[in-house]
Amino acid sequence: MFGKSLGPWLAIVLPTVGFLVVGGRLRAGTPVGIRMAPIVVVILAALDVLFLFHAWPFLLKHQGEEHARVVVAINEAFIGMLLILIARLWREPTYARSVLVYWLTALWLVWYAFPWFGEIA
Question: For FRET with 41, which of 6, 72, 90, 114 sits at 20 to 30 Å CA-CA?
Fold first, then answer.
C-alpha cells in the first residue's frame, strides 16, 4: 500500500495533522505558538541550512550557480522575515501576527525549504 517509502505519505500526513492541531486554536481567535514558533522555525532553519550545505554540489551540477544563489537568497529572506515576525509576536502577541507567522512558515516550507535539486529527466 505504501510502496517503497513512507516519505511521501509522511510529507502529506504530518503537515495536515499539525495544521489541524494548531488550526483549531487559530480559528478560536487567540494568538498561539508564542513559545513554540521560535523553536520550530530555528530547528527548521538549521535543518534547511544543513540540507543546502550538503546538497550544494548537486544544485551546482543540475541547476547552475545562478539558480543556486537565488535559492539560497530566497531561503535567507524567508528565515529573516520569520525571525522578525516572531520577535514582534513575542513582544506583542496578536491573532493576526500569529496567523502570519504560521502562514509564512507554511509558505516557506512548501515553496523553498528543502528544495529538490535532482536531475529532471
Answer: 6
Give the count of beta carbons closer than 10 Å to the beta carbon of residue 46.
Answer: 11
Residues shown for the chain: 121
Number of domains in the chain: 1
- The verdict on residue 119 lying in a domain is no
Domain that holds residue 18: 7-111
Q: Which set of grid coordinates corresponds to residue 105?
A: 512558515
Cα separation, 61 vs 68, in Å, equals: 10
Q: Tell me the C-alpha distance between 32 and 102, whole Å.
A: 9
Write the pLDDT tens digit of every residue in 10-64: 666 766 676 666 666 666 666 666 777 788 888 888 888 888 888 888 888 888 8
Cβ atoms within 10 Å, residue 89: 20
Q: Please provide the DSSP assignment of 23-66 as one string.
A: HHHHHTT----TTHHHHHHHHHHHHHHHHHHHHHHHHHHHT-HH
116 assigned to some structural domain = no
